[in-house]
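INFO batch 0412 | record 1 of 1 | parsing
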Amino acid sequence: MNREAAGLAGLLATSGVLHFLTPKPYDSIVPRSLPGSPRTWTYLSGAAELAVAAAVACPRTRRLGGRAAAALFVGVFPANVKMAVDWRHASPAKRAIAYGRLPLQVPLVLWARRVAR
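INFO prediction complete | emitting tokens
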């Protein structure tokens, strides 16, 4: 597996596992407009990250996995916006984390697209 694909698969797998081990922080950034329980969305997004990580890790499905990763990074953007809005009055460190996540989505999408090629 090439380094870019391995790194992306590792990032996605780590994040996916964290959704199950420590779901509370993820629950808090699920947009209120989504129906159902935030915990359900946390678990669904964690499962999606694990599935996409597996697809990226496997050479036969890497192209599809890279495309799915790009779509996933776009799909979770509203949660990052919610975090930034919710943390706008938090400590400077928390604000830096929340605001820093917003532009970070662009290089993540570009990374996933490179892996898809």
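INFO post-check: The longest helix spans residues 92-116.
INFO record closed
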